[in-house]
Write a structure and sequence with these properties.
Elements lengths: L1 H16 L18 H17 L3 E2 L5 E3 H8 L4 H6 L2 E3 L5 E4 L4 H10 L9 E10 L11 E10 L4 H17 L6 E6 L6 H13 L7 H9 L10 H7 L11 H16 L4 E3 L11 E8 L6 E7 L3 H4 L7 E7 H10 L11 E6 L2 H16 L3 E4 L6 H10 L4 E5 L1 H6 L1 E6 L5 E5 L3 H9 L1
Parallel strand pairs: 1-5, 7-8, 12-13, 12-14
Antiparallel strand pairs: 2-4, 3-4, 5-6, 6-11, 7-9, 9-10, 10-11, 14-15, 15-16
Helix pairs in contact: 2-6, 6-10
C-alpha cells in the first residue's frame, strides 16, 4: 500500500510539471501574480499624479482603422513599414492593432469634439500597444504605455509641464537619477531646409551607410540620425546640426522651453541629433532615460500637425508616452520593491463539512466590513490550512470547527506568539478589525 501511495504521488508530481501544448506568442508576455504589486502601484501612482496635474482619463479601442496610423505616422517610418499588425476583419474592414496612443487620442478628440470640453484638453491613458519588432528585455511586441497629452495650445510652458508630469510619475515610482535628452526638430517652415542639408551631407557617404539607412535616405532622411549601427553613429557625429537651421519662431520656442527647465531646476542634455521616429512630431522632442540613452523610459514632444494629417484643423499639442515594462525592469534591476500599502489580511480556517458551510457566510461578513480574508476551505485538515496561512505570513488566524459552530464561538490565534482565545461569533468582526489595526 505504501508503494502504491508513493507511486501515485510521483505521478501527480509529474502531471503538475507538464505545461500546456500552447505557449504565449513570441514577443508577448503574461502579467503574472508575482508582479501584481508593480502593476497595482503603476495604476495607483498614475491616477494620483494625473489628478494632481489635472489630467482626465480616456481610453481608445485597441483596434483602429489601419489608415489612421498610415496617415499620421508616415508611410516610411519603421512602425508602418515593419512593425504594425494589420489585418482584414470578416466584414472586409482593414484594421490595425494600435502601435501607439497619441494618434488614437487625437482621432477621438476630433470625432467627439472634445475641444468643447476643455481647451487645452489634458488627458492621460494607459494600455497595451502592439509592435512587431525584435523582443528584448523591457520591450515586447505587446507593450504597455502610460501617456499624457495636452491638446490645443502652442505655448512652450506646456512642453515643460509634460516633462514635469513624467518626472512626478517616475519619482512616485521610486526612481531617481533619470536624465532627459532634448532637441528641436523645427517646423514645416525650417525643417525642409535642414533635410536638404542632411541629404547633401550623406550624398557622398551612402556606401558607408547600413541597408536600412540607404532606404531611409530616399524616404525619411531624418531617421539617419537615429540609427544605432556603429558605422552610422560615427557619420552622425559630423552631420549638420538642426539648431543652425531653425526659423525664428522655433528658435524662440526652444529657448523658452530650456529657460523654463532651468527655472524648475531640471538638468537637461541638449542633443542636436535627437529625432523621434514618427512623422507627426515638430519643434520640441525629448527622451527620458536611466543609466544610458539606450534605456529610454519615456519619449515625447510636440505634434502640432497631427490633427491636419487626420483631416482636422491645425491643433498645437504636446505629449509623452512612458514604457511601463521598461520602468518595472529598471526598478527590478535596482532591487527597488513596490512601495504599496497593502490591506492587512487574516486567515480563516474551517474544519468539518458543517463548519465549512457556515464559514462561507462568516467570511463574506468580514469582507463586507472591509476585512481582507485568505482561506483554503478546499483543504480538509486544519494542519494543511495553517500551512497556507504560514506561507502567506499571516499573523491573525480564525479557527472554526464543529465544536465552535455548536457553541457559537470562534478561535482567534496569533501565529507569531501561538496565543489563542475563544470569542463570541457575534463579536468576531469587531475583534478582528481591532487586531488588524
Amino acid at each position: 500500500m505504501k508503494k502504491i501511495k508513493q507511486r501515485n504521488k510521483k505521478i501527480e508530481k509529474e502531471r503538475s510539471r507538464k505545461t500546456s501544448q500552447f505557449q504565449t506568442v513570441k514577443g508577448m508576455a503574461d502579467i503574472l501574480p508575482k508582479d501584481q504589486n508593480w502593476w497595482k502601484m503603476i495604476n495607483k501612482v498614475s491616477d494620483s499624479v494625473a489628478e494632481l496635474h489635472d489630467y482626465y482619463f480616456m481610453e481608445t479601442p485597441i483596434l483602429e482603422n489601419a489608415g489612421l496610423f498610415e496617415a499620421s505616422l508616415g508611410e516610411s517610418t519603421d512602425v508602418i513599414e515593419k512593425e504594425m499588425y494589420v489585418f482584414k476583419t470578416k466584414g472586409g474592414d482593414r484594421v490595425a492593432l494600435r502601435p501607439e496612443g497619441t494618434t488614437a487620442v487625437v482621432r477621438s478628440y476630433l470625432e467627439n469634439h472634445l475641444g468643447y470640453f476643455s481647451s487645452p484638453l489634458r488627458v492621460y491613458y494607459m494600455g497595451p500597444m502592439f509592435r512587431y519588432e525584435r523582443p528584448q528585455a523591457g520591450r515586447y511586441r505587446q507593450l504597455h504605455q502610460l501617456g499624457f497629452e495636452i491638446i490645443g495650445d502652442s505655448d512652450p510652458v506646456y512642453d515643460v509641464q509634460i516633462i514635469l508630469v513624467v518626472f512626478a510619475f517616475l519619482k512616485e515610482m521610486r526612481l531617481k537619477n533619470f536624465k532627459i535628452r532634448i532637441n528641436s526638430i523645427g517646423c514645416r517652415v525650417c525643417r525642409p531646409n535642414y533635410k536638404q542639408k542632411i541629404k547633401e551631407y550623406y550624398r557622398t557617404k551612402k556606401l558607408e551607410l547600413c541597408d536600412d539607412c540607404n532606404e531611409r535616405y530616399e524616404k525619411n532622411i531624418l531617421r539617419l540620425l537615429d540609427c544605432k549601427e556603429a558605422g552610422c553613429r560615427i557619420l552622425v557625429q559630423k552631420a549638420p546640426v538642426i539648431l543652425d537651421s531653425l526659423c525664428q519662431a522655433c528658435n524662440n520656442h526652444f529657448r523658452t522651453v530650456l529657460e523654463l527647465l532651468e527655472d524648475n531646476a531640471i538638468v537637461y542634455e541638449p542633443d542636436p541629433y535627437l529625432v523621434r521616429g514618427l512623422d507627426y512630431y515638430s519643434k520640441t522632442v525629448f527622451e527620458i532615460y536611466y543609466d544610458n540613452p539606450a534605456n529610454a523610459l519615456a519619449g515625447g514632444g510636440r505634434f502640432d500637425y497631427l490633427s491636419e494629417f487626420l483631416g482636422g484643423r491645425m491643433l498645437p499639442s504636446v505629449g509623452v508616452a512612458i514604457g511601463l515594462e521598461r520602468v518595472i525592469e529598471t526598478l527590478k534591476s535596482l532591487e527597488i520593491e513596490p512601495n504599496l500599502k497593502l490591506k492587512s489580511r487574516m486567515f480563516f480556517a474551517a474544519v468539518g463539512d458543517n463548519a465549512k458551510k457556515a464559514a462561507v457566510k462568516f467570511i463574506d461578513q468580514l469582507r463586507e466590513n472591509n476585512v481582507a480574508v485568505v482561506e483554503a476551505l478546499g483543504k480538509k485538515s486544519l494542519r494543511a490550512q495553517l500551512k497556507i496561512a504560514d506561507k502567506y505570513h499571516l499573523q491573525t488566524v480564525l479557527i472554526f470547527g464543529q465544536k465552535e459552530l455548536f457553541e457559537e464561538m470562534i478561535i482567534i490565534r496569533d501565529m507569531k506568539t501561538g496565543a489563542q482565545e475563544n470569542i463570541v461569533l457575534s463579536k468576531m468582526t469587531e475583534e478582528v478589525k481591532r487586531r488588524l489595526r
